[in-house]
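Posted in: Structural Biology > Protein-Ligand Complexes

Title: Requesting predicted complex, FE2/S2 (inorganic) cluster in pocket

I'd be grateful if someone could produce the 3D structure tokens for the following input. Sequence and ligand are given below.
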Amino acid sequence: MAFKKVCSLDDLWEGEMESFEVDGQEVLLIWPEGGELKSFQGSCPHQDIPLVEGKFDGKVLICRAHLWQFDACSGKSINPGDCALAQYPVKIEGDDVFVDADGIQPLFAHS
Ligand code: FES
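-- Reply #1 --
Done. Output follows.
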């Protein structure tokens, strides 16, 4: 385990998302409304488009390129229903947000 600080809680509000680089990997921090702060792979499993360029309505993340949809709480895809985002452990200490991307590779799906 190698948690790295990525931001502080002031940088991200509930209902928002932002991307950061951790250990050379782009990771997405996303905070679903009514849920807990999550971290997923930063690129779409379809064709590697940055997910932060997509839309997030507080519950569902939609990739801008071909509109694949992901549940922001679980990272599982909604449409199509057969893929998922790699998830990284998140730790909050005081106002600091840490992510551990060690050894977790982004997932890719059929195209
Ligand atoms: S690259 Fe994201 S849906 Fe195609």
